[in-house]
Amino acid sequence: MIVYILAAIFVLLMLRAPIFVALGAPALAYLSLKGIPLGLAPQRMLGTVNESILLAVPMFLLAGRLMNMYGATKRIFDFAQAVIGHIRGGLGYVAVLASMIFSAMSGSAAADAVGVGTITVKAMRERGYDPSFAAAVTLGSATLAPVIPPSIIMIIYGATADVSIGKMFIGGIGPGLLMALSMMAMVTFLSWRRGYPKGNAFSFAQVWRTGLSAALVLLTPIVVIGGIFSGVFTPTEASVVAVVYVIFLGLVYGKLQFVSFYRALVGTGTAVGALMVVVSVSGLDAWVIAREQVPMLLAQTMTSFTSSPLLVMILILLLVLFLGFFMDATPIILMLVPAISPLVSAYGIDPLHLGVLFCIVCVIGLITPPVGVALYGVAMVSRLPIERVFWATLPFFSVLLALLAMMVAVPQIVTYLPSLLIAR
Question: Where in the cell is it found (predicted)?
């Protein structure tokens, strides 16, 4: 029976049915065929979203929207350009650095791709860069958002897998910085090979001026992430602090208006409503999967196949990578994590190490067709065909895969900082 349920989900996804329909319809069919009262469905759905940590999701999304509305992205871009824009291919570095800073405030690849991309792609076009390169570096940089804390994907994963979200946030710092440096290295290679222009000469006065302009914006990740790491507040409380601080920025910059604030609330509510419907429906799927003993069968099959924890981790990540071509990150996490949890325990796999890598692989799915959310966002702001943007992004895609292999082989890239901070 479970084979038919999973096949039905996959077929509905291939037919581009809404995700909540693709996940929910087969589960309801299962309840009906098994003679289980349909009243169980709303109970499981409500129980799934009855998690306080999920309150952080709408708050961080709202903070990101307000940041864009108050011109924070432009301030970040101007500061980054003043710091490293004078190098050959400087706007490519600026795109990476601006995305890295914005990532520490939004936690969303889609918000990063559209917010930062709207400015960087336009600026690079005007300076004579290949539009495909401009879109590619913007899309590659958008993958930093769900890795560098705070990360919405990590919040959902931590709530589903019962892994400390604070530890996952800390564990994402090393990989995020490594990804940013690697992308800058790729920008260097492509810029020199293609002869992209240099920016204006470096000026301390310009750095000082733009730094002052962006100072309060740059304090946002320090306030939010510093508060979490120091134990002053939890990730959920940090999300509320982020919104309050961004509203304060709106007052300082004189851009806090009722109409625009209301639009941000409505837009966030719409996005979160759709997300929570998917999350709630996935709870019913998780119950069906558990009732059919899929985790136990999967663990038994994997045990008979291999005794290597490393190979099991690689197989899990390959499965996530494959699913990422067809599904968004949230349904992958909500469907797969309950099934693989017994494997993680049985093989003694570090749940923190696997969790961060799981999220990174989900991020790769955001930049690949046919359902890459960030890919569609960058294609929209760059006004280029999706295929052209994807092919131009392949060098950065290759870098991400190489880094992923390195992080699988060297767990300390993920686990060192959490163990160091916890030890203290």
Answer: Cell inner membrane
Predicted confidence (pLDDT) per residue in 174-188, tens digit: 999 999 999 889 988
pLDDT of residue 112: 65
| Tens digits of residue pLDDT in 253-285 | 888 888 888 888 888 888 778 777 877 887 787
CA distances from 105 to 40, 109, 129, 350 (A): 38, 11, 28, 28
Q: Hey, where are the domains in the chain?
A: 54-423
Name the CA radius of gyration of the chain, rounded. 22
> For 11-21, how does the pLDDT look when each residue is reduced to its tens digit (9 = 90+)?
776 777 777 78
Q: What is the reported pLDDT for 424?
A: 46
Is the overall model pTM greater than 0.70, yes or no? yes
Quickly count: other Cβ atoms within 10 Å of residue 423's Cβ: 6
